[in-house]
Amino acid sequence: MAHVVVIGLGLIGGSLARDLRRCGHRVTACGRDAARLAPAVGLGIVDAVEADWQAAVASADIVVLGVPVGRTREVYARIGPHLSTQAVVTDVGSTKSSVVRELKAASGRLPAHFVPGHPIAGTEHSGFAASLEGMFAGRTVVLTPTGDTDPAATARVTALWQEVGARVLTLTPEQHDAALALTSHLPQMLAYTLMEQFAETPGALAPLVGSGFRSMTRLAGSDPVMWRDVALANQAQLSLALRRYMERLGELAAAVDAGDAARLEKLFAAAQAAYRQLPPA
Q1: Name one GO molecular function term (predicted).
Q2: Domains: count for the chain
């Protein structure tokens, strides 16, 4: 049985805590407001909540950072000096190059025991009360160790995620960020933008909202602070993805303006074919 400390008990941290407890591990939660986290014990999400971060991580085998990517450096600086020599640290942030860059800037190199990670799972909800047992079963978790990372640390974090049913994929931080800009960050921006446009006349349009619109905008219910940090942390790749998407929207608008039925059908058929090639969720 390992002692796992989760700092930042949100949707992902809470869901992982549930699964780790089910697997027999002892889980302690830390956060900015220990009193706010206290109900997580009664809900069976964690074994304990600790207000003293340093004391918590001193006995930890594994520390999981579930904080927004913009706070990773700050949080690691707070706990780093108090970690045991056997502890490994990982995170669950949606960008990886920025995390590596920030930690290198703080210490000159990525700490050998730090394994950057990102579970490709979640919902539009936030907070530990929205956490779900079994969220990671059959899901992909990306790890992005660098040349500074101890292979033994990577192996331990890999085993942690596999224990809760996840498939582990190893990429470079740059590969991860380029891919997630398209598959995660761009859809999030589109959902926010579409919902913002809808909000200009919500009263008139609300009775006409169907399942398609709800599916397209579900992500707009996500935490805006977290996604602000993600957008800025993956700025270059997200900007590129947004511009490529705008080019495609321009092509679509031109076809609509021209009444070009053949072009529209070709675009839609190509998209349909690509969609049908996606693996099952």
Answers
A1: prephenate dehydrogenase (NAD+) activity
A2: 2
The DSSP secondary-structure symbol of 120 reads S
SS3 per residue for the chain: CCEEEEECCCHHHHHHHHHHHHCCCEEEEECCCHHHHCHHHHCCCCCEECCCHHHHHHCCCEEEECCCHHHHHHHHHHHHHHCCCCCEEEECCCCCHHHHHHHHHHHCCCCCCEECEEECCCCCCCCHHHCCCCCCCCCEEEECCCCCCCHHHHHHHHHHHHHCCCEEEECCHHHHHHHHHHHHHHHHHHHHHHHHHHCCCHHHHHHHCCHHHHHHHHHHHCCHHHHHHHHHHCHHHHHHHHHHHHHHHHHHHHHHHHCCHHHHHHHHHHHHHHHHCCCCC
Task: Establish if 121 belongs to a structural domain.
Answer: yes
The CATH number that applies at residue 133 is: 3.40.50.720
pLDDT exceeds 80 at position 247: yes
Contact 218, 124 (CB under 8 A): yes
Sequence-separated (6 or more) residues with CB below 8 Å from residue 55: 82
* Lookup: tokens for 154: 């990577």
> Do both 145 and 117 map to the same domain?
yes
Residue 144 is assigned to a structural domain of this protein = yes
pLDDT per position as a tens digit, 172-206: 999 999 999 999 999 999 999 999 999 988 678 88
Answer whether 0.85 is exceeded by the pTM.
yes
Taking a C-beta distance cutoff of 8 angstroms, is the pair 25, 4 a contact?
Answer: yes
pLDDT at 259 over 80: yes
| Residue 163 and residue 52 share a domain | yes
